[in-house]
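Protocol step 4 of 5: obtain the predicted structure for the target chain.
Materials: sequence only (see below). No template structures provided, no constraints applied. The aim of this step is simply to have a reference model before the mutagenesis design in step 5. Sequence pasted as it appears in the construct record:
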Amino acid sequence: MKLTSTKVTLYRNILDSTDVEVQPDVACLVGKNESGKTAFLRALRSLNPARGEVDLSVPDDYPAWLEKKHRLAGTDLEKVQPIQALFKFEETDKALVSERFGTGTLLSESVTVLRCYDGKLVANFDVGEQAAALHTLQQVELPKGYAKRIGGKKATATFSDLKGLAEALKTSTDKADVAAGTELEKKVTDLLGEGTLRSAVWKTVAPRLPKVFYFASFSTLPYSVGIRDLLEKDKSKLTEMEATARSLLELASVEKEFLLNADYERRKRELENVANMITEDVLKYWTQNDKLRVEPDITQTTVTNPQGQKAVLDELKLRIRDDRHMLSLPFDRHSAGFRWFFSFLAAFSEYENSDPPVLILLDEPAVGLHAKAQDDFLRFINERLSKSCQVIYSTHSPFMIEPGKLERVRLVEDKGREHGTKVTKDALSTDPDTLFPLQSALGYDLVQHLFIAPHNLVVEGTSDFTYLVVISDFLRDESRKHLDPRWSIVPVGGADLVPTFVALLGTHLDVTVLVDARSNGHQKLTNLVDQGRARIALGAQRSPTRDVIL
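Step 4 output (structure tokens):
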């Protein structure tokens, strides 16, 4: 199934998010701190968590200023449904239903899935009972004339009709009739169990409901973790950090006996292979420092308890080796960005090949990454994650927003206690602070693509721009030589800003600079030339009244 839209109601600071349309590949939640981005993702995680248990709680998650008021009004808060999602059935889902219940049984193209505060999951969709009943009827060899026993309603038979027919056949004195009735009753029971047709169909397709994989900064790997405790603990009770560490161990396809084996070399080699594999994956998208690698180890320490009994403590320890600087540090003392990226891949490895694919929720991903590294992570999302999984991530970084894919953006804004958090794609209804990351992303993109002319002439200010344009236009009107229209004139706001502009953008743009004379010259521009970051194309002309650098 594919998530097409979702809605959060009465959850933390969200009263009614309205229906939020979700892109089939990647969606991006943009908003200020404390606007409700995390609340939205946490609510969606509770729908069908891949890690841990459903953690909806009225005391913890119901809007605090409304809980008492709604209780006094008689609302059963445990029955409130804080999260609902609309999933579209795919062909694989439909085929499962048709194979078991017959073609025409599944009437809906989508299913609405809701989770209550008491943990109950509800699925709403339409089924065709007559199609399923007829399909069941055709699997049983009945005596001639059976249609009359259900009122001649062969084409419109319901399961009530089939149960009635089975009872009638079982009371017959004919052994063949009794056998047919018994078989028909068994078919209906096997198909429906003790429930309805809808519940039976949902039981068949429910495993196709995507698990929701949520990852945040507190999900990163720890430096050290107790192996025995980690392996013996109920998987649903693991903390986010512990779950990530366990995913790393499970990636090695190792058994408990192997991890606790006394043979140091054996367990060391296997863990190194796993760490090397993940590090290699990270470095495909990590351009900051390709000399990093993760070094895992398992230590065994014998301790004596107060009763004099000895026990062996096994710990997984992680270090990051930087070959560029010949330095090794504990995992939790190294770059936050690299640790986050490595931890995410370790955690995601458990679900990367799952069928159906998981729904990935990333809460403020890559927040510890440099702007260029954030661009690398976006490439990772587009090239690897979204190829098989739907991804929803939150951010307030302009470098995690793709100006060419603004259809992915959903704006999150806290409208106060009266209205709560709203999620929208309408920029006109959103305050400027919420829009700021979006504006920054667009502004940066505009700067990067503004200079589309073959030649760019950088001048100090608007007066230089005006003189050049007016004089050139006049000469053109007089059919005289004028400035070639291929030149793009760019005023930068002053002579002191010219060197900075050239240093920042001159590395990938064809830039020519025109500046006025100074008694002390233009040392910063000259330094750029000396450093090889700029060049004098046609030489420099100096006089007491002017200084032109081309």
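Step 4 remarks: The radius of gyration is 33 Å. The CA atoms of residues 70 and 76 lie 8 Å apart.
Proceed to step 5.
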